[in-house]
Amino acid sequence: MVMAVGLLTLELYLPMNDSLKGKRGILKPLIARLRRDYNVSVCEAEAQDVLTRAVLEVACVSQNGALAHRHLQDVAHRVEQWHGDAQLIDYTIEMLG
Hints:
Structural class: alpha+beta
Number of strands: 4
Number of helices: 2
Number of domains: 1
Strand content: 35-45%
CATH topology: Alpha-Beta Plaits
CATH architecture: 2-Layer Sandwich
Shape: elongated
CATH class: Alpha Beta
Oligomer: single chain
Order of helices and strands: EHEEHE
Largest sheet: 4 strands, antiparallel
Helix content: 25-40%
Distance between the termini: 13 Å
């Protein structure tokens, strides 16, 4: 059986943040919710030392590419509607393999 792997890159703006501790406080609940609600793997990939910007990578494995793509679009839309201190600037979805 061939599985599809999808990778979602989320670029976030954290306008009210002024410390690394504050950044962690913003990202931890968001990452935890995405992991719990969508059963995906999430990590902070870039800009770890930039206080007002974060880049998250979200990965999922699915039975086919269309399902993986749709699942990652749902994740991106959820982040776009997030009512925390993180604003979605842009996202890209890439299918691997």
